[in-house]
Here is the input.
Amino acid sequence: MKALVKYGMKPGEVELREVEKPAAGPDDVIMRVKSVGVCGSDIEFWQNRITFPVNIPVTLGHEFAGIVEEVGENVTEYQVGDRVVSETAAYICGTCEMCRKGMYNLCAKRLGYGNGTNGAFAKYCKCPTRVLHRLPENVSFDQASMTEPACVAYNAVLVKSHPMAGEAVAVIGPGPIGLFAIQMARIAGAYPIFALGTDVDEARMETAKEVGANITINVMKEDYNAIIKKYTNGNGAALVIDAAGNTPAVKTAMEIVKPGGQITKIAWGAKPLGISLDPIIQKAVTLQGSFSHTWSTWEAVLQLISAGTLRMEPMISHSFDLDDWLEAFETVDRKIAVKAVIHP
Ligand SMILES: [Zn+2]
Ligand SMILES: [Zn+2]
Here is the structure.
């Protein structure tokens, strides 16, 4: 089968290759992949701007949904033809403290699809039943392929953070995860919701408004601090989500957060910050990281998609065949797409 493989550690060392179709172990299913999202991290793997480990050669792709094509001999809970979506933790040890506590997203031996082990930019992908979730009837494969980034936002905003109805939330960086974070803040009843971006985010800012941002701010052109203070009685945002990751984002977060508030970092930043974190102390702010998601997150997000509470249509802007992966990646890299999906 054709698969999109990262084969080297230089920028651009990704290509379509002929690889063997995966074989199901006793507890696995083979999924016929119908829809795979192109993630910001796929762009980083392609350009080798990587902030976390990758085992080459590896088939990329970790946001995917499809149909069960084959089942292993021990599999009883899934049948050929079932519509499913897969989590990203392709391998976990199952015996460490984190695994035993159900926090398997933090297992030190975790191997993620598309970087630790072969992912889903291919016709077939091997999935242990542990990572599968059944799709509600009214959830399409394209929608389901975006469950993963939505889960990242759900975990960061609704599990790790505590947005209160009627309190201000600011989201820095209106990429797909930032846009889902805006939606989670809306679902929590936060008000007002600020979306902060730069000149390159103009199109995404329109989507931000569509999915729940009350006020959008271009930090390169507008006095973001003054605007946010104006709408929050001079206090700032009770919760700031950093979905951008770089030093300016952290600096901005510390400026706009309310005393006693929370800053939750979702986005990675490979470079040292080079700034003082003293405002965290002065304002008695909680700064925390949030990574990945677990089983219950996926079930909850699928319900939100099925209910229409989570708005998926504005999120999918482009779709491509696997042969046109380069065009898909370029569209995402140039921030033209809100979210692009590939149909292998
Ligand atoms: Zn992703
Ligand atoms: Zn473990």
Q: What stands out?
A: The chain has a mean pLDDT of 96.
